[in-house]
Structure of Urease accessory protein UreG:
Amino acid sequence: MRLGVAGPVGTGKSSLIATLCRRLADRISLAVVTNDIYTDEDARFLRAAGVLDPERIRPVETGACPHTAIRDDVTANLLAAEDLEADFAPLDLVVIESGGDNLTATFSPALVDAQLFVLDVAGGGDVVRKGGPGIARADLLVVNKTDLGPYVGVDVERMVREGREARAGRPVVALSKHDEASVQELVDWVLGTLASYRAGGHVAVDPGPMAPHFHADEEHEHAHGDEPHTHAEQHAHAPAGTHPA
Ligand SMILES: Nc1nc2c(ncn2[C@@H]2O[C@H](COP(=O)(O)OP(=O)(O)OP(=O)(O)O)[C@@H](O)[C@H]2O)c(=O)[nH]1
């Protein structure tokens, strides 16, 4: 299974992956692809953490806006994942870390089977309310660094509650690398998703368009976090031939 980890800069994606490696490397066969714009910093961080055979950690240097390499043209990441899968066959899990991006960035289902979106409480309690496809529809939303809540004046419980409300029943994990119970919850989700994937019960979903559009002659009923319109719905009133295929 390929698992994507996306989220804004500094929310704790590399630390989360290091935690997963620490907890899972002796139970399943793992590899990691990292994405940075200009460097291989995240790969070096993970190698230095000593949580996985350094050969199993491969950097992709995107040279462009991070979402380009995980959503628009996934070639470099596909090659890195396929190389790891060939070199260390059979692998159970390849984790692909996105470069830190903004709230619109999600993985293409052409690259990953499941994806999680990482926010942190230090980024502010209102971030969840700002919405976006990753927050609303990634397979898992992680509200990270819950231990920092008291220091940054963020009501963590409220942030998590608003996360659940935005996701129509999809799961949310409130995580801190210093809180063992929350780490266990994350590990359980990953292993549960892997089991479901192996049993054929997990289907890769596209969290959706970055900004679903609507037409001025339609009533816009969809609030943040709701399902996006389907293409057919969006164009239901358009005269034939007025939109590109
Ligand atoms: N207090 C606290 N700090 C954390 C936690 N998780 C990560 N951090 C810290 O947050 C900072 C950023 O973590 P990273 O894992 O580098 O974040 P990232 O999302 O990979 O960053 P980019 O790759 O630059 O986007 C580091 O100083 C971590 O030690 C946590 O659960 N609690």
Notes: Residues 9-15, 42, 100, 144-145, 147-148, 176-178 surround guanosine-5'-triphosphate (CB under 6 Å). Strands lie at 2-6, 30-36, 57-61, 93-97, 114-120, 140-144, 172-174.
